[in-house]
Amino acid sequence: MVLEQQGSNLSDDPTLERSFRGHKDGVTSVGFNTNMKQLISGSEDGSIMLWNFKPHLRSYRYTDHEGPVLSVAVSSTGGIIASGSKDRTIRLWAQNISKSKSTLIKAHTGGVRRVAFTQDSCSLLSASDDKTIKVWSVAGQKFRQTLSGHSNWVRSAAFSGNGQYILSGGDDKTVRLWDLNQRACVHKYFDHTGAVLDVLFHPDSICVMACGADGAINVWDTRTHQLLQHYVGHTGPVEAMSVHPSGDLLLSASADTTAKVWDLREGHMCYTLQGHSKGVCAAAFSPEGDYFATASADASLLVWRTNMTTARATTRAPQPSGKAAAGVADPAPEAG
Question: Average of pLDDT values for 22-37?
């Protein structure tokens, strides 16, 4: 494991705590169980694995999907795990996954690239290669609506904190903001020059973020739609992101085999983490932000202790930045 520090004023460095191996192919997605007793991962090998943090407890493998598992999500309160697969299906599992079978949802005509819950765990979204996003009520798996507008695969989607909005990104190079009450796209962002691979709402829900095949990470203000920050530091596509619960730190995962930690307050890169032998496909902070995990095409998962004491009691939005790691930020465009 190699850690490179880039001018960080944070008090402590991240440390590698655990590694997990057991998947037979690349790991595409990762999430922490809210009880912090387990890590959940999905893989190109078609399986979901539940990894126990206590060394004396075994791990579990589940193979209900008939194709690569592209996404896993853990509900915050509902005791449910969701998975999406290239087999075009969604499956829901009880968090006591070791003793349960999954519930099957069929609705998409293409692979399911992303599943995500609202913060209250009452709603679920799915984003697909069929160019749509679908929204479901978790109770009874009741279908609610379809959002159509992307002209190519939808790679990622996420709910806002209040569950009223969805952010999505895809191979058409656009990031789209949807209002679920209006059942419509209310804004499009065109700053990426390649496929958009992941999208996030900042914890304050004022700012949104996206990363993509162009190697860039962009942060926008949803009130003015101004580009606030533009980061370029990876040498390959940025596959995934996770934001610290404080809103101060962003974790990015790249095909260049590294993960990076960014300071959103100051607008620069803090750390480069090297521990995987192939591209890093997924990354996630734990619910409290004291740990994070990275997952790779090398079939391994690494769990890191965050250690950084930047987190504060209040959540602050990213500020406009004149600097980007390894370059100068693009000028913010006029609001539109």
Answer: 94
